[in-house]
Amino acid sequence: MSDRTGGLRDREADSGLHDLYRAYSGWLTARLRRRFGEDADDLVQEAWIRAAPYSRHGLIEHPKALLMRIVDNLAIDRARRRGPRPLSLSDHVQPEPAVDLASQADAVLLKQIILNMPPRLRDVFVLSRFAHLEYQEIGERLNIPVTTVQWRMQKALEYCAAQLRL
């Protein structure tokens, strides 16, 4: 069955995606190069492929957020496929540049809380929250049982909550 508009909707959707690409491709590529190095080009290409259906339905209200969520999911999938690897210096998370003073203050506070956390709790917390590893993967990397990972994560969250209440 053909579209009586002569494919007008498809052309509009493609135009919308093209406009988004022109507006955000440079930003996305630069951001991913800092974060993923050589893998950035592949992630950018796959992110645009995955964003295409959203543009066809006109569902993109916050394009940067959508693109970063897609890239985060792609990076998590790739990391899971590769399996566990030894910890390296690149596993230490550097906070993203803050946009406004309030978020800068929040970033500084979060960094201070994490740096002051006991090392065993901090290792589990960082691998879970920033490296996006599952408890099983954390246990394998740190050579500890999953129950210990769960306990340390609970204690790390309690530590964060206690510091925020001060």
Helix tally equals: 7
The major sheet is characterized as: none
> What's the CATH topology label of the largest domain?
Rna Polymerase Sigma Factor, Chain: A
Q: What is the second-level CATH architecture of the largest domain?
A: Orthogonal Bundle
Give me the secondary-structure category: mainly alpha
Contiguous uncertain segments of 5+ residues: 1-8
Structure write-up:
By secondary structure, the chain is mostly helical. The protein has two domains: 1-83, Rna Polymerase Sigma Factor, Chain: A; 99-166, Winged helix-like DNA-binding domain superfamily/Winged helix DNA-binding domain (Arc Repressor Mutant, subunit A, Orthogonal Bundle), CATH 1.10.10.10. The chain contains seven helices and no strands. It has helices at residues 8-36, 40-56, 63-82, 101-116, 119-129, 135-142, 146-165. Helix 1 (8-36) packs antiparallel against helix 2 (40-56), helix 5 (119-129) crosses helix 7 and helix 6 packs across helix 7. The chain is globular and about 50 Å long. The N and C termini lie far apart (65 Å). Residues 1-8 have low confidence and may be disordered.
Map the helices and strands.
Layout: H1 8-36, H2 40-56, H3 63-82, H4 101-116, H5 119-129, H6 135-142, H7 146-165
Question: Can you summarize this structure?
Answer:
It is built from 7 helices and no strands. It is an all-alpha fold. It folds into 2 domains: 1-83, Rna Polymerase Sigma Factor, Chain: A; 99-166, Winged helix-like DNA-binding domain superfamily/Winged helix DNA-binding domain (Arc Repressor Mutant, subunit A, Orthogonal Bundle), CATH 1.10.10.
